[in-house]
Amino acid sequence: MPRFSIVVPSHGVAGRLSQALDSVLAQSFGEFELIPVCDGPDAPAADVATGYAERDCRVAPVHSPPAAGTAGARDAGLRAATGEWLLFLDGDDVLVPGALAALDARLGETGDVDVLYFEHERTPWWVGEPTNPAAPVLAGTPDGAFPPERAPELTGVRLPAWSAVYRRAFLAERHLTFPGGHFTDIGFGGLVVLSAERVAVLRQVVVRHLLRRQGSRLGLPGEHHFELLDQAELVLARAAEQGLSGERFGPLFEQLFAAVLETAAHPRRLPGRRRAFFRRASELYRRYRPAGFRTPGGSLGVQHRLLASGSYLTFRALRGANRAVTRAASGVPRPRGLRTRLRYRRQLRRRLDRNLAVYCAYWGRGYVCNPAAIHAKARELAPHIRSVFLVEADRAHTVPKGVEYAVIGSREYWDVLARAKYLINNADFADAVVKRRGSVHLSTQHGTPLKKMGADRATYPVVAAATGSLAGLLARVDRWDYNLSANRHSTEMWERAFPAAHETLEYGCPRNDVYCTATAADVARVRGELGVPEGKKALLYAPTHRDHATGFEPALDLQALCEEIGDEYVVLLRAHHFYDRGGARGTGRVIDVTGHRSSEDVCLAADALITDYSSIMFDYANLDRPIVVYADDWDVYRELRGVYFDLMEAPPGRVARTPGELAALLRDGSYADEEAGALRAAFRERFCEFDDGRAAERVVRRVLLGEPPEALPPVVPLAERSPAPAATTLVRS
C-alpha cells in the first residue's frame, strides 16, 4: 500500500496539468500513487495523463464527467485510491520540492491522526508577492496532535481541500465524501473537522497554488452562488445535530457567514437575485445563530445585524455607500481624431445590430485565412447576416468581387465596429474597440503554435521587446468570447498563452477546409495561376520570421539548391507575411509567391514542403504530402524565441541541418520514403485532429446561428478523409 494517494482533478486546466504532475513525480519521497482525474478518454487532459501513465507506473488516470464537477472528480479519485493518506491537488497547483518527505516526517512525529493540515502559497499568475493565507489560521493551534476542541478557530471552512492530507480509513469510516455542487471545499472542510478526533498541523508550505488570471470560476456571476448557502446549511445542520459546544459553534458560524456576507455584498455575483440570496441567508442566520453569539465589531458587525433582522434595503444602501465609484475611463474609446472619437461614441449608444458581423485578418491584410473561410461559409449558411470585411486602404483592391468591405480608419469602419454583434479576427482588433454587452468576439488564431505565444512570450526578451505591452495584450484577450483550436495541443497552449474566461472551440482550422474539399482540377488551376510549369515538381519553401533578425534573407540559396537537385523541380518561395511586398514574381526555377493572396492555394500547388519552424507545416500536413524541416539554427531559435515542444524529437518528416543534407534528401528521394511517411503519419495524428473540411461550418452554426454543440457535424476520423490530390507523384529517383 503506498503511503500517499494524490488525486488531481484536471477539468479546465489541461494546459497546466503537466506542471502539477511533474511536481509530484519529482518528489524525493517516492511511495505514492498519482491519480489524475480527466473528463473522459477523449478530453484534452486525458492525452496528457495517458502519456504520464505510459512513462511511470505510479500514474493511474481515472475519469469523471464534467457535469460531476470538482466534487465528483475528487470522489472518483478517492474511490480509486489505495494509499494510506489522501492528498487532493488541483490541476493548477504544484507540490513544492520536498513536500511529501516533509509530510511523511511530520506524520511520523504526530502519530495516529485523522487529518494533517499544512500551509500553502497563493501565487499571482504573473507578478506580485505570493501569500500564505493558511499561516494565520494554523498559527494558534497546539504543537502536537490534538482534538479539534483545543483549537475552536480551526473549523475547516477557511482552508481548501488541498491544504491537508487525510487518513483514507478515517474518510471511509465516517463516510465522508465531497458534497456535490459548487463551494464543495467549504462543506467538506467543515464536515471533516466535525468528524475528526485527532488532528495535527505542519507549519510549512506544501502546495503552491497558481491563481488564474481570470479568477476562480466560483467568482463568476450566476445562480451557483446559492450553493454556498447549501454548503453552509449542511455544515451548520451537522454541527447542531452533534450538539457542538458554543465555544466551537461560534467560530464556525462566524466563518461561514463571513463567506456568505462577502457574496451578498458583491455587486456582480448575483445579478437580479441578491434580494433572494439575502432573504435565504437571513433565514439561515436566525435558525442557526448560537446562543450568546457576539457579532464582530465594525462594519462587519453592522452587516451581521442587518442580516439577522432581514433588512435588505439598508444592507444594499450600506454596501453601495462603501463602494468606490466605477471608473468611467476604462470604457472610453480612443480612436484617433476628435470627430472620429465622438462619432464612435455616438454609435456605441445605438443598439447592437444583431445581423451584422465584422471580419478582419492579419490587421487588415486582405480577404484571407480563417476569417475569410468563415465569411464564405456564413454567406452560404447565414445569408441574413450582413458581413463586412475590414482591410487596409492599399489592400482594398484585393477583396473579391461581391464581398462588402470597410477601409480601416474610415467612418464606416468605426460604425460597423461599434454596432456589430459578431466580431471575428485571426489577430487583434484595435485597442480602442469597446467590448459591448451582447457582442460576440471570436478569435480564430492563424495556425498551430510551435513557438511561444501570448503571455508565454514575456520571458523571452527579444520577443517581448517586439510585441509590445503584455497588459495591452491581455486587455484584448479579455474581449474574446470564443477562441478557435485546431487540435488538442493548441487547446492546451492557448490556455497558457491567453489566460482569460473565453470558451475554446475545438472545431478545426477553417482555412484548412479546402485541403479536404479541393479537387485535382483546383490544384491544376492554382498551379497555372502561379506559373508552375506543367510536369514539374513544385517544392514550397516557407521559412518563418526571426524576431532577432532584421528583414528577410532566405537561409537557403534557392538557385544553388535547384542546380543541385535537378531540373525536374521548381521552388515556390513564400516568406512570412511580414515580408509580403505584393504580387508574385518568377525568376526561372524560383517563383516568389509571398504576395499571393492565399497560402492555402500555394500549399495546394506544392508537391512537397520545405520549412523551418513555420506553422504552415501543421496546415500542410493535412494534405499528407512530404515535408522536410530545414533546421540550420534550431538551437538558436529555440533559445531566443521559445517553443512548446522539441520539433527535432517529433518532426513531420525528414530533417536537414545543412544545404548539402537537404539537397541529398531531395536528390535520392528519401524525403518521401517510408520512414518520412511514418513520421508524417504520427505528426498528422497529433496535429490534424479536427481539420476534416467542416471547421467553418461548425463555427458558423455554433457562433452565428447559435446551434448547440451536440447538433454540430461530428469530426470525420483522419483515416476516412480524402486530402486534395497532388499534381505529381513523388518517388525515389
Q: How confident is the prediction overall: mean pLDDT?
A: 90
Characterize the overall form: globular
Q: Strands of the largest sheet, in order across it?
A: 3-2-1-4-7-6-8-5
The proportion of residues forming helix, as a percent range, comes to 25-40%
Strand content: 15-25%
Question: Rg, please?
Answer: 30 Å
Counting H and I runs of at least 4 residues, what is the number of helices?
27
Could you tell me the number of beta strands?
22
Structural class by helix and strand composition: alpha/beta
CA-to-CA gap between the ends? Answer: 61 Å
Largest sheet data: 8 strands, mixed
Question: How are the elements arranged and paired?
Answer:
Elements: E1 4-9, H1 14-25, E2 32-38, H2 44-55, E3 62-63, H3 69-80, E4 85-88, E5 93-95, H4 99-110, E6 115-123, H5 134-139, E7 164-167, H6 168-173, H7 184-195, E8 199-210, H8 226-241, H9 246-265, H10 274-288, H11 298-309, H12 312-322, H13 338-349, E9 353-360, H14 369-381, E10 386-391, E11 405-407, H15 411-419, E12 420-425, E13 440-443, H16 461-467, H17 470-477, E14 482-485, H18 488-497, E15 503-506, H19 514-517, H20 520-530, E16 537-542, H21 558-565, E17 569-573, E18 583-587, E19 590-595, H22 599-605, E20 608-611, H23 616-620, E21 627-630, H24 634-641, E22 654-656, H25 659-668, H26 674-687, H27 695-704
Parallel strand pairs: 1-2, 1-4, 2-3, 6-8, 9-10, 9-12, 10-11, 12-13, 13-14, 14-15, 16-17, 16-20, 17-19, 20-21, 21-22
Antiparallel strand pairs: 4-7, 5-8, 6-7, 18-19
Helix pairs in contact: 1-2, 7-8, 8-9, 8-10, 9-10, 13-15, 14-27, 20-22
